[in-house]
Amino acid sequence: MSVSNPTLITFVIYIAAMVLIGLMAYRSTNNLSDYILGGRSLGSVVTALSAGASDMSGWLLMGLPGAIYMSGLSESWIAIGLIIGAYLNWLFVAGRLRVQTEHNGDALTLPDYFASRFEDKSGLLRIISAVVILVFFTIYCASGIVAGARLFESTFGMSYETALWAGAAATIAYTFVGGFLAVSWTDTVQATLMIFALLLTPIIVLLATGGIDTTFLAIEAQDPSNFDMLKNTTFIGIISLMGWGLGYFGQPHILARFMAADSVKSIANARRISMTWMILCLGGTVAVGFFGIAYFSANPAVAMPVTENHERVFIELAKILFNPWIAGVLLSAILAAVMSTLSCQLLVCSSALTEDFYKTFLRKSASQVELVWVGRAMVLLVALIAIALAANPSNRVLGLVSYAWAGFGAAFGPVVLISVIWKDMTRNGALAGILVGAITVIVWKHFELLGLYEIIPGFIFASLAIYIVSKLGTPTHGMLQRFAAAEADFRLNK
């Protein structure tokens, strides 16, 4: 591989720009609140695009196009479920969580919010929720590192082991240095790059295959059932794919964006921007996988890498159809998707360890400078564990993501959603919800019951546990007072 390789040069410039943003954010990071939530200063555009980019990880450009390429439009139910779930999350949770966290001890993390909202003096709620974050996020981080490794492996011909470290290094660097502001600012750049790649690529694939009519005829000739939304599906299968949307209510890296908005007034505008971005990106992703069927059936000589691993469909189309410089920019979009999600997850794990273990139980009197450096050390620690988990080359991106997504969706989703809309929820209800949700996902996944995606029973059982256990107790006067004040604040300013 020569150093003049345009794709390599594009990657190096892109990564250097991200690290530079990290250094700029470093200058604005003075205390733990800045490092974890950017001092609650995000405007609506940055809130919207960083929420979108942190959500849409490497699976958007690898896992989902690969699934569509293999099975046709029947895999697009997942995109429909995600759009509905994301919209409801913006509508019901975003603004309320922003004011509730401020009224409940200016909470910086989800465990922090739970502990304040439910007056948990024992520390049990904080510890259990922080442990859930660490377990599922380390798996989630591993999925991002696998996606990054696949990209470097197929683009530069590296061995999987070398690609693993190359893909992770840049993300660790800017997250380590700049914290939340670096992550959010880079997310905004990355979201722009992702939408550019996902709108341009399907158009060029269409033109290369001979236009819409020719493309559709080629897809039909390959297998007419590619157009069938119900192909090889069952009711349980469709519900399982749509069930991905439930996960939004419990993803700490997305909820952190809501908590960091500069005010509740920014949320409505952010929702509009974020949903537009998301619908366009998901539409582009489905189109890339779908039109790829026509392109590779018409050009079997170049289809070998995709036949071996269908998650490479976007990568191969970019390399074949574009000038190497443009291909470099498009492939940087995959790196952007991987980096944006991985950086958020590393930061949430770091904040759970720093705020919810170190500061709360080990060093209550720690200075802000000390806490920021502990936060940075924890970013490195979590990253190294995730790299170790990702070391198996047979890992599939979508499989790792689906498990972690279900874990958060079931353990935290019902607790977050119900805590911001129901005043009578109690500490024991929250505790029961987290435990029942997490345990259901692990058990259901292990036994693969009914062929149903584990997030659905997890979400239902956790919600029931919260309601039943909360009904057995009563919230304190302080909890009711803070809830009412936050709700009034939300209604006044939304």
Automatic annotation (TrEMBL):
One of its GO terms (cellular component) is plasma membrane. CDD domains: SLC5sbd_PutP (cd11475). One of its GO terms (biological process) is proline transport. Keywords: Amino-acid transport, Cell inner membrane, Cell membrane, Ion transport, Membrane, Sodium, Sodium transport, Symport, Transmembrane, Transmembrane helix, Transport. The keyword Cell membrane applies. It catalyses: L-proline(in) + Na(+)(in) = L-proline(out) + Na(+)(out). GO terms for molecular function: L-proline transmembrane transporter activity; proline:sodium symporter activity; sodium ion binding. It is found in: Cell inner membrane; Cell membrane. The chain crosses the membrane at residues 6-26, 76-94, 127-152, 164-183, 195-219, 234-256, 277-298, 325-350, 371-391, 403-422, 429-447, 453-473. InterPro entries: Na/Glc_symporter_sf (IPR038377), Na/Pro_symporter (IPR011851), Na/solute_symporter (IPR001734), Na/solute_symporter_CS (IPR018212), Sodium:Solute_Symporter (IPR050277). It comes from the Bacteria. It is a multi-pass membrane protein. Belongs to the sodium:solute symporter (SSF) (TC 2.A.21) family. Catalyzes the sodium-dependent uptake of extracellular L-proline. This is Sodium/proline symporter. It comes from Pseudomonas arsenicoxydans. The lineage of its organism: Bacteria, Pseudomonadati, Pseudomonadota, Gammaproteobacteria, Pseudomonadales.
